């Protein structure tokens, strides 16, 4: 069973691996409730109880798809922790008048978006609500006022951010009544910025766990036509037997989880068999030399 852990001193308890919903409507073969229900039940059997979604996913249609699917089985929603995000607005069918994409993290927008997410997801609470991207035009006081209000009104149980740098996180956190519980950041063997730019260190300092998006670099990590992918495949082949016939994707999730900030990888596959295979990664404890060996294969050079 995949372990669970509190993501912050005042935060919710999540499963060590999280199921991401960004691509839920990308593939006609899997974008219907019968297929999703199979994957949701597989998640529960494995111990993956946390779902990550966002207002914008599927051009504003994924939340509704999740809500319609959860509604098919009474009690199913309560078996999951739901994370959703708001703040990205792009031209789309619902807003043909919109000409450019923009961010908005004003109080009124956050409240309106959270209420829409509640309605579409068919729930009366959101476990964790994130500001999807920093909005350069809104003050920290204004954004915090929206998040504080949503917590106070019981619409969201905790608040966090995504893609914030260390300074943006500090600033917003300083205005929160209840501290932010996570920063959801891009982190993988092919995107190591968080361990160099201070965001993972900031999480350690505050005792909060980052959520790691695109843990397989959107599939590029598995692509042997890309030189880093080819080096990583070769390294995985070398390590596989030592870690119970582990595959590259399993080693890649384990590599992320081994970092002391304890990131929670968000899995992006729509394929049931791949989803089931991820579970093994929670049992893999990489030895130091192997962690640095994967680092070296990804970078194509040794440590500085
Ligand atoms: N906060 C943010 O700004 C942000 C941004 C992006 C994503 N996210 C979150 O992070 C989640 C994961 O992101 P992601 O979808 O980019 O994750 P990912 O795991 O890096 O990439 C998933 C993609 O890789 C493919 N893939 C190829 N080989 C695979 C294998 N062996 N196992 C698993 N997948 C394989 C998948 O295809 P198949 O479906 O065919 O397996 C899928 O297209 C999203 O669902 C979303 O919840 C957040």
Intertermini distance: 38 Å
Bound molecules: NADP nicotinamide-adenine-dinucleotide phosphate
* Count of helical regions: 12
Named at the architecture level, the CATH assignment is: Alpha-Beta Barrel
Helix content: 25-40%
Gross morphology? globular
CATH fold annotation: TIM Barrel
Q: Main sheet, how many strands, which sense, barrel?
A: 8 strands, parallel, barrel
Query: What is the name of the CATH class?
Result: Alpha Beta
Task: Please state the average pLDDT score.
Answer: 97
Low-confidence stretches: none
Superfamily at the CATH H level? Answer: NADP-dependent oxidoreductase domain
Q: How many domain modules?
A: 1
- Global Rg: 19 Å
Main structural class: alpha/beta
- Order of helical and strand elements: EEEHEHHEEEHEHEHEHHEHHEHH
Strand content: 5-15%
Task: Label this structure with key terms.
eight-stranded parallel barrel; single chain; binds NADP nicotinamide-adenine-dinucleotide phosphate; two-stranded antiparallel ribbon; alpha/beta; 39% helix; 304 residues
Detailed description of the structure:
The structure is a single chain. The chain has 12 helices and 12 strands. By secondary structure, the chain is an alpha/beta fold. The protein has one domain: Alpha-Beta Barrel (TIM Barrel), CATH 3.20.20.100. Strands 3-4-5-8-9-10-11-12 form an 8-stranded parallel β-barrel. It has a two-stranded antiparallel ribbon with strand order 1-2. The chain has a two-stranded antiparallel ribbon with strand order 6-7. Helix 5 (140-152) crosses helix 6 (166-173) and helix 9 (227-239) runs antiparallel to helix 12 (288-299). The model has no long low-confidence stretch (mean pLDDT 97). NADP nicotinamide-adenine-dinucleotide phosphate is lined by residues 20-23, 52, 162-163, 184, 213-219, 222, 249, 266, 268-271, 274.
């Amino acid at each position: 069973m995949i372990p669970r852990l509190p993501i912050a001193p005042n935060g919710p308890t999540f499963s060590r691996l999280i199921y991401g919903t960004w691509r839920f409507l990308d593939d006609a073969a899997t974008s219907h409730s019968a297929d999703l229900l199979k994957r949701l039940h597989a998640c529960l059997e494995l111990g993956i109880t946390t779902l990550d979604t966002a207002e914008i996913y599927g051009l504003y249609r994924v939340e509704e798809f999740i809500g319609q699917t959860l509604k098919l089985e009474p009690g199913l929603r309560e078996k999951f922790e739901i994370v959703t995000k708001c703040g990205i607005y792009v031209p789309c069918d619902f807003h043909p008048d919109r000409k450019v994409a923009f961010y908005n993290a004003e109080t009124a927008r956050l409240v309106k978006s959270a209420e829409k997410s509640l309605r579409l997801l068919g729930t009366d609470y959101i476990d964790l609500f994130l500001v999807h991207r920093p909005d350069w035009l809104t003050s920290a006081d204004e954004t915090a006022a929206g998040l504080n209000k949503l917590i106070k009104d019981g619409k969201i149980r905790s608040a966090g951010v995504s893609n914030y740098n260390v300074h943006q996180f500090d600033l917003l956190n300083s205005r929160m009544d209840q501290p932010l519980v996570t920063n959801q950041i891009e982190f993988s063997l092919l995107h190591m910025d968080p361990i160099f730019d201070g965001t993972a260190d900031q999480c350690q300092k505050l005792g909060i766990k980052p959520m790691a998006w695109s843990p397989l670099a959107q599939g590029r990590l598995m692509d042997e036509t890309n030189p880093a992918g080819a080096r990583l495949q070769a390294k995985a082949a070398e390590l596989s037997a030592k870690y119970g016939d582990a595959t590259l994707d399993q080693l890649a999730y384990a590599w992320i989880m081994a970092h002391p900030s304890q990131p929670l990888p968000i899995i992006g596959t729509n394929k049931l068999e791949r989803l089931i295979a991820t579970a093994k990664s929670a049992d893999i404890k990489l030895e130091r030399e192997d962690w640095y060996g994967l680092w070296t294969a990804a970078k194509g050079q040794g440590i500085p």
